[in-house]
## 1
Amino acid sequence: MSIDAAPQAMPLRERFTQGLDAPICLTWELTYACNLACVHCLSSSGRRDPRELSPVEARGIVDELADMKVFYVNIGGGEPMLRPDFFDLLGYAVEKKVGVKFSTNGTRLTAERARRLAAMDYVDVQISIDGALASTNDAVRGTGSFAAARTAMDNLAAADFGQFKISVVVTRENVTQLDAFADIAAGYGAQLRLTRFRPSGRGVDSWEALHPTADQQRMLYHWLLDRPDVLTGDSFFHLSALGEPLDGLNLCGAGRVVCLIDPIGDVYACPFVIDKEFLAGNVRDSGGFAHVWRQSDLFQSLREPQSAGACTSCGSYDACQGGCMAAKFFTGLPLDGPDPECVFGHGEEALAARPALSLPQSTLGHSKVDSHGVPLPVPTPVRFRSSARV
Amino acid sequence: MTAPPAFDPSRHWRLHPQVALRDESFGALAYHYGTRRLLFLKSPQLVALVSSLEEFDSARAAIDALVSETERPTYTRALARLAASEVIDVD
């Protein structure tokens, strides 16, 4: 929401495209280690990276975010609760008035940890499921992952945590379960959060089979319009071309109001573009994160006016701004053309016209591998600890 | 949760204790740590007004001191919206 006392002021969206002094929405992935292996993992997580930030370095990031007045940070991974200093870091951030919203698969959210979280201010918890039924969810996230997530939700509810969030990546398989997701959330007094499936990380291999069809996207758009209380992380702005804009800024915030700090301190334009093309710098470089955010060549160029390219003649460009940069990049489409899921079908035409073998191949993944370096199949079953410790 | 008090410009107002401001070229971002809401204050003058409310006996006195006569109705409405969002708080 914006409070407008100066009608002559430049529209806010235009201001945002030119970048802010500090990000509004900063994602910080604490580790590439994960005990799940979801088929759509945006960061291809699995193995911890030996170069990950030390506890002291991580606290240094919090100090810097506090200095920059970043009000809150979205923590993810990998599975962030696998980091041994997870609670120390949470406590430190909250003490510095950097609020934390963290995403977890729930497998380590025990009853005891739920009570610890409930006792903290400024901490929001988001538990991921990708199906309203175990069968739908576990096909994407691994056998047993639905039960584990529900146990975590039960633990938060029993600890009187208050309103947590249930986070769902919308796929072709689960888009028919939107009402069921809303019911699960309502049952806990939780907030439902739906986000867009991008072909990032391991998603590059599963996107074609799992991204919602054009009809499903139209249905989703109307479903969201009817439910302004459902959070979306502003991720479905490509659907705003269908008419009335969805709630949110409706722009690509990459490098402008959004960025990612990955577990080894690399700073990318957004959480969905872990690729050297979108690497702006590292928090270990001189000048730290603030220097990368304010001075990096990549972020400076993303804040320049962008060409609408093939979308110039489309009357809906103002509504969708050409869609998601990451979705275009990882499907091999030009960045100044339509989104692969353009609601007018221009993306499908562009996908059909792609030259063969044009897909970018990221070499930055942390998927688990066998002793020969060959990636293990996903999703793999979750290996649970005894119920008392799950 | 109790509803925020209605905006009465004759009373003493202040920046809500749970709200932090961050200056930006267009004005400021305001973040409420309690409601977790982020708002955009779209003029530096509004930011100055909000930041100095506490020094005046009433919101009206602050507006009279800091805002030109023609703009006072606009800024009064802006403060009313900030009160409804709990960015400012009656004291």
## 2
Amino acid sequence: MTTNPVIELDNLSVRLSGREILRGLTGSLSGRTIGLLGPNGAGKSTMINTLLGFYPISGGTGRILGLDIRTQQREIRRQVGYMPENDSFIGQMNAVTQVRYMAELSGLPPEAALERAHEALYYVGLGEARYRKLNGYSLGMKQMAKLAQAVVHGPKLVILDEPTNGLDPSARQRMLRLIKEMRDSGSMHIVLCSHLLRDVEETCEEVVILKQGKIVHISNLEEERKLNKRFLELETYGIQNGFVDAAEKLGCECAALDNGRVKMILGDGVEIRDIYQLAADRDLQLRRLSHRRDTLEDIFLKAMRGEDTPEVKR
Amino acid sequence: MAVYKRTYKPYTGAMTPEWSRFLILPRFAWRTLFQTRFILIFYVICFFYPVGAAIAIYLNHNLSFLSQFSPKLASSNGLFEVGGRFFALYTSIQAAMAFILTSFVGPGLVSGDLSNNALPLYFCRPFSRTEYVVGKLSVIALLLAFITWVPGLLLFGIQGSLEGWKWVSANAWLAWGVFVTNFIWTLLISLLALAISAWVRWKVVAGGMLLVIFFLGSGLGQAINAILRTDAGYWIDLAADFGQICSDFYRIKDHTDVSTEEALTSLALMCALSVWLLWRKVRAYEVAR
């Protein structure tokens, strides 16, 4: 994982039509793929549009790849690719012409732009359909064409706004595979804005959760996954007879629940076989033992249930 | 073309200079425009009068050739005078052609991008709203330049080369007039067409709006002048204002009761209004109020 922050937000606020849409966003994100989550109307798209300079900032500031979003907008746009949420295309153009056009607007010379346009369209799987007009494309194809124009100029950061919207399962899988490929290529960072938790969970290393224009949670999914490896949920039958105390003596953190259920975080050096041994020593039946892990859904729901958080939970 | 690389690779090559990127818009737009046979044919027709005028100027200086058909011509000083009236007529004909061409080309320029949500694709790149407006403006303005002031100056050059340097120095004001009047006209109708295109998404209606602004504005302006016995109607009579500017620059009889300064101010205000309207619409996303 890179250490330089990709996005830094410093009390960023945005007010549109007299309404405060983003309220004092603060945080630093440095994952290779960053998921931007939140219910509808949470301010995800507004945040993206503000970072791209589409909306005026009413307070605070932010940095993308170390560049100030207030003063270095043009420099930022040189290094960023953007895939909008809605249908966006230039009427009457075929895919290769539009992607070439976009590459030229990003500064590529005409010959290089044409070559890159062909490559980008092949890359997203539209190679055979690249001479067809975009207004005749299916929804899935339009999404891929939008992805092609977002990456054609070789950006360092790609912002994808709801890339799997309206896609059928196979097209969705194809899109997620491409995002993972781009992530694993190591040549670019990705910000994925979505309300689909599975998409974010599958592709992102870091996640920001927005609620009512505020950041309510930032977490590093990779680190949480590592932590969750040692999180067990047990269902016992019989008299526990000091089982929990013995486990705590081994260095585990335990919480005894009703009906013989125990939640446990294994201590350093403690293995599952040690827990079996403790149970066997006490003639305690272990009816179920599972690695419990906080899914992104759990994290998201917790963040949504929480009161308006004054400081970001991290 | 053959594509060998099917994996993603960042681009590391040279970049084009930023100042020149607005010219990408006309290059792509013209390619699409001239795929329409009607536009192509009409654009060719727009050159008929300049070509005819060039032939006429040439023949005007080759009376020995014409005298083969009519011996009287050999003793005359020429068929016609190439002066203010000649170029005023040229400007009025080419201005009308430019207006018709604009009403076909202009309406789709911005409305297409707006209805297809294409503006975020432009503005997420190192490409500003100003560059977008200048780029779109140059789609029409350059197209019109090649049928208005560019051939006009060529006609002046042909006449000058046939008459000699003395004529050129004595009539340099004509070249200035050709450039200024045609430039003002092309700028005005280009900006109006773009502004209408940004606000009216239906092409046919947008094309009609351009006609309405000129013809209805002209009629309304004259009605105001007649009923209220004032000159205030000229502020909305753009055709009359332009006529006055032409009269002044080509040094022919005054066209209207309005002064050239007032006419120029009226057209400048209309251009400013068009830019303001355009500026309000040309943005990546509209904020819902």
## 3
Amino acid sequence: MNGEIIFRKDEISADDFTKQIYKNSKLDYSKFYKMDLLSKFAFLGTEILKAHSKKITEYGDDEIALLFSNSVSSADTDIKFQKSYLEEGSPSPSLFVYTLPNILIGEIAIRNKWFGENLFTIFPKFDSDFFANYCNILLSKNTEACLCGWINILDENVDVFLFFVEKTEVNRINSPLNSEALSILYKK
Amino acid sequence: MTSLKEDLKKQIIEQLNLEDVQVSDIQDDAPLFGGGLGLDSIDALELIVLLEKHYGIKITNPEKGKDVFYSINSMAEYITSPKG
Amino acid sequence: MKIYITGLGVISAIGTNVEENYQSLQEEKTGIEKIKFLSFDSVVLAGEVKLSNDALIEKMSLKNGFYSRTSLLGIVAAKESWGKNSLNQSIRTGIISATSVGGMDKSEKYYRQVLQKETTDISFILTHDSGNTTEKIAKELGINGYINTLSTACSSSANAIMLAARLIEQNKLDRVLVGGADALTQFTIKGFHSLMIYDNEWCRPFDENRKGLNVGEGAAFLVLENEKSIEKTGNKPYCIISGWHNAADAFHQTASSPDGKGATLAMQDAMKKAKINPNEISYINAHGTGTKNNDLSESVAIKNIFKQNIPPFSSTKSFTGHTLAAAGAIEAVFSILAMNNNILFPNLNFSQSISETELLPQTKLQQVENVKNVLSNSFGFGGNNTSLIFSKI
């Protein structure tokens, strides 16, 4: 969180990493366990941001735009879904539901009852130019804040980076979101 | 009949990813939907898959599912009753 | 500033180019029938493009290399749309494409072979990801500027069109080739069956007895330009894109809310953007998948906004099937065809109104005096709702 480590994975625990974070964050959301890994990480990341920065919850229900991206789309879940009909004989509806990367945005919207706009893009790697440009476009219009994220998950590889951009801050420092600065934050 | 209901509860917990739920938490006659378990329409579809996977019974009309999946009792009854 | 549409390209179950698609629409001839090319373990109705992969490769005179069906369809439509455009240093050009399936059609075929160790060639994996489809298209046309790929389920290409319009409006680009492509796969057909929203008969959008959707495949691309670009290219515009909006439904991962909130917001704010009133909409090309859920939710949203004055509306998915990520773009092309020819396309297979809303779609092909503004809806899984408005210049 902002460069500081707030929780480390317990390698010995029977619970997987997402369950550990969920319990540690003292969350109570029964729909959590049904989500796929992409949605779980996006959800957890958002909850942690909210816990850290209460003002996120003070925005109106259509003022926050959700902008997410990754390179592998929903491949992790796609493979699990394929297995369900190739190896287990019947396609699993609960897995099929998650074979689209933008569902993670849906989960965040459902949890927070946010009706603003949302978009999911595919890039070969984290593209700070895209995020900077698009956030600036959105903030110059009716959007008040952008919750953005790079959620890339395949097998054991997890690369998650979320950030929250506010129009009030952009106006205060009188400078649009800067792509290079974003790139540096991501690398950290 | 009792072990069938026990089995059903275990299978449901596993199939629907109900991580923090124990077998003892699910009452035989309690409504599965609209109750404390928080099940939704996708869970109903997974229960259809469960019936086919574990009991070889195929439900093709999702509307029928509403009666069958009302509670553990109704599920057990459907499984053990003769099919026309 | 005005954003012009100057290029159209489409391939679907009802035709391999704009002319053929328009012909089928006029003849009220559906393209949904038993699948021929995709291998599947049971008989299924779908909107399959009537050309095999080999035929598509031959049609486009493609060289060696690995092409997923999605890429092939995309290349056909992109080429038709791009037409005689060429790259020009002073025109900032981009390409935005959308897909949900990507190269899945090849992957699922070869995955089994790899599993069974029949082959160790994994070059197909390179075509699996969504971004590769866009890159293949960009390479075919020689576009190397801004390249972007979107994946937001059924509203993907509508969102792509919206993104393209915004980039032009914000003066980041002057010309954008934008659209989407999706091929039929076992993955999606099985998936929709598992959700029990697949109709084994021909889908019946907005009908009381509708049972679900038929999946379709296809691709469509549009060329968007600003005035500066048109002055240089000399392209003749078909129309303008005057309004757009995207909103979240925030209700369920795959079902739409019963009060149609996301859909209402999308349509309403698209009209606000276009600065037009509901009574100025001449025709709605609805999302209308034929599922119990969408058609009710969309009907409720339409009633919310238009109240007693419902404009003529129809779902062309009864012709093409639900083409997933390509739907937004394919239906944008159909909307523009409707506008330029002052014609309303029929909603096939309709016999009885949905009892809760009692709306009556356009059931016959009809020539009218003036189709001035067309509203096109694309509502995707994940509660991603997008509406676009095209208007006569």
## 4
Amino acid sequence: MIVTPQIVVRLALIVLVTVLLQFAFFSQVPILGSVANLLPVVVVSLGLLGGAVTGSVIGFVTGLLIDVLIGGTLGVASLSLMAAGYLAGRWREGYDIVSSLVPPLLAGALTALTALVYGLLTLTLGVDAPVSILAIREVLIQGLLGILLAIPVFPLIRRAVRPALVDDAGRARSRAAGRFSRRGGTFGMMRRQGSV
Amino acid sequence: MYRKQVRRRRAILVVLVVACLMLISISISEADSGPLHSIQRGVSTVLSPVAEGASRALKPARDLVDWFNETWKARGENDDLHDQVAKLRAELLATEKAAEQAGYADKLGELMNGTGLTGYTPVDASVIGRSFSLWYGTIKISAGSSDGVSRNDAVITEDGLIGRVSEVTGGTSEVTLITDSSSGAVTARVVGKGPEGLVSGVVGAPGRLDFGLIQGDKEVKDGDRLVTAGFTSDSGLSSRYPADIPIGEVVETIPAEQQQREQVNVEPFADLADLSQVTVLTGGGE
């Protein structure tokens, strides 16, 4: 991802809008006895598009903002979302997104992982209450809802940060030059090396 | 070049992980008046108007989703009842907000008069936000210290107790629900018979409460209703919650032979998953 001041502003806006949507809408709409979690879906999308560093930093900031807004223990959401963003970024640096199913499935899996890490951290920090086996169901439902959310969210995020994406910029240049664009090539190599 | 990129990536990751661990450590060990909590409150105060605006703007969308949810639930009922529910729902959607608030006020008045809470000053508030995980059952409401709300004030709806104020800013407050594992237990007693115990949340089951440490000879059975005990000791120690606020109904009792201790599951009277308007009991009972 080519990070320019304009892209930083766009990323900040994406994070702010995501946190507000989660806080004021998704958290208040029960679905299947749980709530959809937009935060890891957006963090994973940005990790997939921008790499491990972008994913980690966005995860950290998003977690910090939601913790401040809702008054949770600072750092817990940051750590779990950061893990999701980092893993998504590492996936992107190691593999090509060969199918349109990859982002939703990865978002679902990492959303479930975020819920699991968040729960384990909370347990580690001490929960003075009985823990129900239904917590596992919560993790699975959040994963399922993450898959469904990622279907529209990933293309939207991709569109929002398109000017910063090396692949898309490369394709645009290739089209402008009248050449065929080929997946991989210089940009693919650079991406695999983690240099972009 | 590649190694440099990897080193940079790892360095950023380590810095972020260390920052998270430090935040967690300080957040837990520090007193509520500490600098980190003060910063958290300050930023929350700044962001609250934005969050409140977003909440108001998104209310029609929430209502729409609620409408679909309710429609889905109603599918299992017979045709006549289904038609009736649809008609009522259409009427409900058309009802003015003021009329809705008036209805809420009437029911709340009945609750307050019936439970001897007239010494408290009720402050009505709208729910503007909610935590995203079942591990924290907290909501944010549109009333704060400028409305007379203080920390640890009890929060109720027309159906009964929902929690207590855990954090206050000028125009908003954070309410920790009774189902939150960190809210602390509520002293409760069974209506009519009097066995007392502690009601606390169950992690992973946000719509359920656990009634434990039961004291008293009489047995607790399904259908028993629980209200706050609201104790006051000779030394001046008293419960955070006023007495006699309805909490919930016992829906399941599991004998001690099957568990380490007798387990009593309670379903709250208030629908904690769908809160839009709440009331804070301010001032303390005189």
